[in-house]
Design a protein that fits this description.
The chain is of the alpha/beta class. Strand 15 (538-543), helix 24 (559-573) and strand 16 form a beta-alpha-beta unit.
Length: 749
Amino acid sequence: MRQPCGQLPRPPLRTWQHGGVTSATHSTLFPQVPDSADAVLDGLDPEQREVAVALQGPVCVLAGAGTGKTRAITHRIAYGVRAGILQPTSVLAVTFTNRAAGEMRGRLRQLGAGGVQARTFHSAALRQLQYFWPKAVGGDLPRLLERKVQLVAEAAARCGIRLDRNELRDVTSEIEWAKVTQTVPADYPAVVAKSQRDAPRDPAEISQVYAMYEQLKRDRTVIDFEDVLLLTVGILQDRHDIADHVRRQYQHFVVDEYQDVSPLQQRLLDLWLGDRDNLCVVGDASQTIYSFTGATPDHLLNFRTRHPRATVVKLVRDYRSTPQVVHLANGLLGQARGRAAEHRLELVSQRERGPEPAYTEYADEPAEAEGTARRIRDLIAAGVPAGEIAVLYRVNSQSEVYEQALADAGVPYQLRGAERFFERAEVREAGVALRGAARAGGNDSLLDDAEGLPAEVRAVLSTKGWSSEPPAGSGAVRDRWESLAALVRLAEDFEQARPGATLSDLVAELDERAAAQHAPTVQGVTLASLHSAKGLEWDAVFLVGLTEGMMPITYAKTDEQIEEERRLLYVGVTRARFHLSLSWSLARSPGGRASRRPSRFLNGLRPGSGALGGRASAGGGAGIERPAPARRKRRGPALCRVCGKTLTDAGEMKLMRCDDCPSDMDEALYERLRDWRAVRAQEISQPAYCVFTDKTLMAIAEAVPGSEGELAGIPGVGARKLGRFGSAVLDICAGGDGVEGLAEADEEM
């Protein structure tokens, strides 16, 4: 018998009460599709279940990090579909990234609700715009501008305004912010002044460039991604018949990450809804970290004001992180101020105890990177998969020193933000090969000795570079192997979940996963900025560079900007399941003045910093580790050997001169060194910079060392590289080809 509001009776909670609740964030790769609507609810905790059965009227889910928000809303949709309350084609679920939308589609498919639309705001709007444009405007939809930077550069040039590369990027971002906050060029200076926004250039100049950019788009009949939302809003506002068409199609809406909605996205959502209230939003004001793009938590915080009858559910059971990690996360928010902080959620860990967070102070940035790489190598040796480890930093420019340190330590890594898994050349090639083998069936000689699906996949992929043992080192060869190995692991999981599955079944599964961008795991330590780590998680997380000026970032001036930086660190902390390491360095470079201070956000939390506001230390009495400094000769400031200016840039310090000072480099020697490096990098399957960076080769070509002592004195040539490559480099500097030194190095290895 149905309950009021179209809700079914709630099944008993025995599964959860008997410890059967499944992890909020760890799901079986190929679970069996639930055989009934009630089975969809199995394994949900009481609060998640409350979300899942609340299918009518406005629903607001306040979900802390690691509490299973995606699980709750996908099971809600699937339960409604399987119970016959929701028609799959009438549901539109929207989120903010293609990855998140793909994950949602994958989960819905596994729950038997594959017909539901799960898209980003832009994707959903573009689909509607393409469909309705001929009727609303006529003709073809203008071409979509993939990258607006070049057009912004042209607009600036036409206005007589010179922008360097960084300024160009910042002005482009500022135009995007203006558009999503529905600010026209003429109003931009006033809006910036009113909001106390720190503009990257004179607001009047940005307004001028913004207006010219819009004019150039009109002249060339192109639109950008923000126009997709603006034009869809305009059509739905002006054409009631089209708005009614959309509202007949979609009658139930779900919005994930609602704290990140911009004013323009909220306006579009209001037009989709009309006068209805079948809306479920999910968010956490404490994870608002994208205000620079126009995101605001106000819509989430004001939801109950706009919808007084809303069902509100709080998810605070953290299934991701240990009590130690959760304690630190709660401590960070306990010091927060402002409206978002007033609505913070106190997380409660559901996991067994783990290690205390580790706090480490280093003498300088290279020492911090090397120490982090050593700890990661130790974790991998102890059994933690490389793909379950991440190094997170505040800005992308911090990655280089960690790339170098991991490469030197022989640890594979991947940069977050690289091309999508299914768009990689080796994955596309593998898909073609698997599809051909599936079509050939028993007629493919490759499969003659292969028994079982995984063996067949291994046989096919062995022709594309896969082997049972990974190649040495990192670099392109290792990256290719890791991609193919991920497909092999996927085949193994697929057969285990579906015994008797054929190669054709696996190819169909890969096609569906590619369409949903539901990629398998690639093994390798993740290097990522804190912003790009949002929505992800790892067994071990290293938060690095936690100093004043970096966390919070130096340009965070206002109280709200400082609080957003605190929330960003909170997001970083809550990415860790088990191991969490926080570190900082006192100087930028070896021998530099130790003038840096640990981030203020760690005051009262890290051991020895003193309790803040009566809070106990989150470190449980564990001390801050200060690794014994390497025996480096104390040096004074590095001076340019041409003009005598003090050098601070790492690249200039390697050259011992300013970048714009005259160079006495031996160009022919430099080219021979580059050619040797390319060959050597290919042989050891590592990127070229892992042998020597360009700046180090330039420094060698300028100094032309004649002995190991002279070579060792060049910054960037450490003891390890001296032993590995020194003989070859000296041979090249003496006029040889480096072959003799190369043979010696190979013998040592």
